[in-house]
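Input.
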Amino acid sequence: MQNNEINIQDLWHNLFRYKWTILFVTLLFTSAVAMYAYILTPLYSTSTLVAIDQKSSPLQKLLPGAGALESSSSLDTNIRILKSRKIISKVVENIDITKHFYKLVVFHGFVLKKIAVYRPPFAVKIKTLDDTPFHHTFTIDQIDTGRYLLSVDGKEHKQEMKFGVEYKTKHFIIAIFKRHDFTGEKYQFTVNTDKLSLTQDIINNLTIRKLSDNLLQISYQDPLPQRTKKIVDEIAHIYIQYNLENKTLENKKTLEFLDQRLKFIRQTLKNYGNKLKKFQEENSLVGSSEGSSTLFISKLNAAQEKEKNIEVTTEALMKIINKPKLDNADIVAISAAGIDMQQINAWM
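Output.
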């Protein structure tokens, strides 16, 4: 017990002896954390939900052997589609994300923080003079009501520029239009026309989660909440359009298949008819050949029945070809037309 009391007394003595050092280190650490939190650019996330139809369409069930019409509807497949370049590249084409604007917090010539800005106090009009990808960083300082200084990738132009006037360089033409005064404030903006780079940036910040057997959550992170919402909404919109186009294409291919089978049956029917006519012309007497005649008539009747079935099938499918999604009434109509898997397989 005595040793413990001595140790505690020594501990308190040492703490009191180095109290200013401990206080300084604590304040220094707290300040560093606070400064890091201040400098760190916040990220905002926006999410939306997409329902996935896991069931095969009735048209796919009708044609199980048509490999060109078969498609995987698993959640993993849909996740890969949502994060594919085919979908995201269309987002880059539909939304102008080539320009990013920032307000700079400067202290004694040092940039402490870059604050993402959705609508800066100026507008930028820029035109590239060649087809090569364009990626540059611009910094703008307002001098007075009508003039400003512009630096490109850290290199300042000695010439003072006027708002609303175009300036031409070897690679681009740029003009800055002032919305309102921003004297004393410093802004920076980047212009990136490399679509591959922009597409990859979106993919890197895109997250897709499975919430249930038929529900996916699309989330996107960005320094600007307005931009995250636009990108997420556009991804969902393009994905829905993609599915509608695929369903329409699938239905058209089904009708094309049935149309080809109808032509084949009609040709078969015509051939049987020609053979029967020729047989009747060559055999005027009915006797030992009666069985052969009956066989031809039986085949002819069967061909006529197949033609009738395909015509009924085609008529039923034509009514639903432009529908993006089949409802119960459509399925009942197909069944009422006498369409089933065995029938289609027999035609194939």
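Residues 58-72, 341-348 have pLDDT under 50 and may be disordered.
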